[in-house]
Design brief:
alpha/beta; binds hypoxanthine; Rossmann fold; 7 helices; single chain
Length: 272
């Protein structure tokens, strides 16, 4: 995607009334889209109306760009994402992330529903992602021919933003352990043997998103924070056999706590 291409998307969202500056952009994962209901001064555009934007076909994902005010801060919400498993393209979220960069938004918060690989991390818990394992075999920067493709992922999950998450969690009385998120392509859930592999490799959570977005965000020089809502024990743990319905239902149940954390985090954001 060239610089010129994304300008069409920028012009389109500006024409639609999405005007910065924004303090943060937030990608809302499966079952977490109701954060948009907490915004005031809302302007919203369907992804289908924005050039280069993905068409999210997964239930639990609305496919809408929503700008507004939360805790006195200007935020840009992505209500729904496109996944690698939908398109075969790990760069499925490249246009939205490039837009964040072009609008000058300094912080990108990625959220997801995830399975827990550790029995002590239970469904309904929130986890701050501290690092990741890319076990998908793909990368959103394949076929990118710029020098920037060799992006460092050391410290990809911004340390000051992780501290801000902890501060917000502490104030809200929410437990927020940190964990390593393992990305597998999906859409089938993992086997119990694959989950044992993730445990041995040091993963704490497993999911089908977020990692390619982190890679793209670092490529564009954005600061990244990421939060998982644990929706289920991963395959085989205590006999678990995950389902998409369980993922959506548990995410919705945990969404009040999730929204309190994100509100607290946004409230704490100072100039970054
Ligand atoms: N595996 C992969 N992705 C997921 C899971 C899981 O168990 N739960 C929610 N997203």
């Amino acid at each position: 995607m060239t610089h010129l291409d994304i300008q069409e998307a920028v012009a389109c969202v500006r024409a639609g009334g999405v005007e910065g500056p924004f303090d943060a952009a937030i990608v809302l994962g499966t079952g977490l889209g109701s954060l948009v209901d907490e915004l005031t001064d809302v302007v919203s555009l369907p992804y289908a109306d924005i050039p280069l934007f993905p068409r999210s076909g997964v239930s639990g994902h609305a496919g809408r760009l929503v700008a507004g005010t939360l805790e006195g801060k200007r935020v840009l919400l992505f209500q729904g994402r496109a996944h690698y498993y939908e398109t075969g393209d790990a760069g499925a979220m490249r246009a939205p992330i490039a837009l964040v960069k072009e609008l000058g938004v300094p912080v990108l918060v990625l959220t997801n529903a995830a399975g827990s690989v550790r029995a002590h991390i239970r469904p309904g818990n929130l986890v701050a992602i501290g690092d990741h394992l890319n076990l998908s075999g793909s990368n959103p920067l394949l076929r990118d021919h710029t020098e920037q493709r060799f992006v460092s992922l050391t410290g990809a999950y911004d340390a000051p933003l992780r501290q801000t998450l902890q501060k917000a969690a502490g104030k809200a009385g929410i437990e927020l352990p940190e964990g390593v998120y393992a990305w597998l392509s999906g859409p089938s859930f993992e086997t119990p043997a694959e989950i044992r592999m993730v445990q041995i490799l040091g993963g704490d959570l497993v999911g089908m998103s977020t990692v390619p977005e982190v890679i793209l965000a670092r490529y564009y020089g954005l600061k990244v924070a990421a939060v998982s809502v644990v929706t289920n024990l991963a395959a085989g743990i205590e006999g678990a056999s995950p389902s998409h319905q369980e993922t959506k239902d548990t995410a919705a149940e945990a969404s009040e706590k999730f929204k309190r954390l994100i509100r607290g985090f946004v409230a704490e954001l100072t100039d970054v």
